[in-house]
Structures are given as C-alpha cells and as structure tokens.
Amino acid sequence: MLIWFIYQYMNYRIDNLQYCNWNRKIFEINRKANLDAVHVTVVYHEDYDEFLVEVKKWEKLFNENSDLIFPGKNFTDIQKAHQEKKTAIFFGFQNCSPIEDDINLVEKVHELGCRFMQLTYNNQSLLATGCYEKNDSGVTNFGREAIAEMNRVGIVVDMSHSAEKSTLEAIEISKKPIAITHANPAFWHSAKRNKSSDLLKTLGESGGMLGLSLYPHHLKNNTNCTLESFCEMAARTADIMSVKNIGIGSDLCLEQPDSVVEWMRNGSWSKSKNYGEGSKKKPGFPKQPIWFKDARGFENLEVGLKNVGFSSDETKGILGNNWFNFYKSF
With contact defined as beta carbons under 8 Å apart, do 188 and 220 qualify? Predict the structure, then answer.
C-alpha cells in the first residue's frame, strides 16, 4: 500500500538527453521547467583523456552553480534534487570512444560519473554498427564484453544511434534493460535514426526505455511539427510498447554554435562536411518547434499528452516518473 501511495504522488520531471552549451542561464531554464534530472552528453568522439578534460569543465560548472545543479549517480539523487529544488546531472556518452579498446576503462568512466553509453554514433564502432552504415553486422565480440561490464558496474546501454540488428542483439545480450534515450518511431517520421515498430515492441517487452526526441530532424514536418501530432505519436507508440516504457529525451542543443554540428557528425575521422543522407546534408542546428523552444516546453507536453487521452498518472510517467523507475535498474 505504501509503495502504491508513493508512486501515485511522486511527480518527477526528467529530460533524458540534452547537449547544450552549458551555462547558468540554461541551468536556470531547466529549474524553471522543474527538471529534477537531466542526462547530459559529455562525449561524442573524445577519447579517455579528452573525457577527463570534460570532467574538469563540469567540476567548475558544479562549483559555480551549486545552488542549481549537482552530479547525479543514482535514482536517490533524483529524489534529493526534487526535495532541494535542484537538477541532478547524469553524464552520458554518445559514442564508446572514451573506453578506446580497453575493457578496464568501462569501470573507470563509471567511477567518473558516466551512467549512459551509446555503443555507436551513426558509424561502425568497436562495439556495434551505427544506423548510417550500409551493412549491420551486429554487436561485436568486444561489444559483448563491454555490455557485460556495463551491466556489472551500472552503465546503461544506449542504442539511440545504432542500427536495427545491433540494437536487437544488444537487447538480447544485456542482462539489464537498455535504453534508446533520444529517438522517435519510424512509422511517424522515417528519419534514418528513428526506430521500427518491431524494435520498439521488443524494447518494451524487455523493460527498456524510449526517450521521445524533440530534435526537429527527428520530427514529422521538422520545425513545423505540431504539439498535437507529437502527442498523437506518443499515444500510438504507447500501444506498441506500453506507456510505462516511454519518456522524454529532448536532444536539446541550446546555444551551441553551428560548427558543433560538424563535430557531432564528423568528429576527427572525416574531412567531409556533408557525408551520408538525411539530416547530415542540412548544415547547422534546426530551429526548435515553437511549443518546445527549451525545457519549459514540458508544460506544453503535459497539456498535449492529456488532450490525446493520457491519464494524469500516465502523463506524469512520460514526463519523468518512468525514467525515475528505470534509473533504479542501474
């Protein structure tokens, strides 16, 4: 009875993916949005030593903004943030570059705060295949070892930028539920990185989570996507994989210069600025939909989700409670 009572009345707000040009203004916006936790991308293509540099940058941010943010390690920090009206910051990697080819670095990055790691970022990695590769060979031998080690230390396997076979294999291999922290269903918008209904069904059945993305290239009609369309998509997705397995991973990139897009797409492995298909041919960051310019758009999402038929508890789940329950699996 007590567990039921707590679940009914908890109301966490969690954005499970942001990659902003971090400063106090953005931390203040996230607090105005009542975000109790944000999973932030600290690495795209950086190696281990470069990750250590990012950690130092975040130490400075934590010290200078201690009234707004603090480093998050597990779900109890979300509870703490909620009580103290702050935002817990959880580190994540959008690539496996920081572990290089050394399995021992998985534990090292966890000790430094990493709680989510993508096995790939669009391309083939040492662990799995990315969604922009022509051939999907699945999870590699190193990938299997890395998943086992991630399960052991408490890093979530993130397959947001991975190809379908690789993602399905990761779900099967992992002894803990995995996450797709920021993507949308392909039935709604056929962006190369959005996910098939079959994959989402398997993800949901395994206890995994999908963070619905607000990044315009992932949205139907892009910047002109309507709130109603997005929320109707969420309802259809809930029919496929259960509302309890859906959250928000906005993929907000506030105040980033357009040059950062080239870094995200090309890192240091390519001299080309426009390789591949789809969003890769579109320079610069797209404008956010008018109803989700920043995290304060969570208020619009709450209204929109209820308007398409989600109950109050289901809406609270999508906006944060479902991620909170998932964090307990670390």
Answer: yes
Q: Could you report the per-residue pLDDT of 30-40, keeping only the tens digit for each? A: 999 999 999 99
* Residue 155: inside a domain: yes
- 247 inside domain: yes
For tokens 């990315």, what's the residue?
Answer: 130
pTM of the complete model = 0.95
Overall domain count for the chain? 1
- The 8-class DSSP code of residue 131 comes to T
Burial 198-227 (b: 16+ CB within 10 A, else e): ebbebbbebbbbbbbbbbbbbbbebeebeb
Write the DSSP assignment of 12-27 as a string of letters. Answer: --EEEEE-----HHHH
- At residue 142, φ and ψ (nearest 5 deg) are -60, -40
Contact 259, 270 (CB under 8 A): no
DSSP 3-state assignment of 186?
A: coil
- Provide the CATH number for the domain around residue 40: 3.20.20.140
Residue 191 resides in a domain: yes
Of the chain, the percentage scoring pLDDT greater than 90 comes to 87
pLDDT score, position 3: 47
Range with the poorest average pLDDT among 9-13, 46-50, 176-180, 226-230: 9-13
Answer whether 20's CB lies under 8 Å from 26's CB: yes
In a domain, 1, yes or no: no
Domain span holding position 301: 12-327
Query: 260 Cβ partners below 8 Å, 6+ apart?
Result: 21, 253, 285
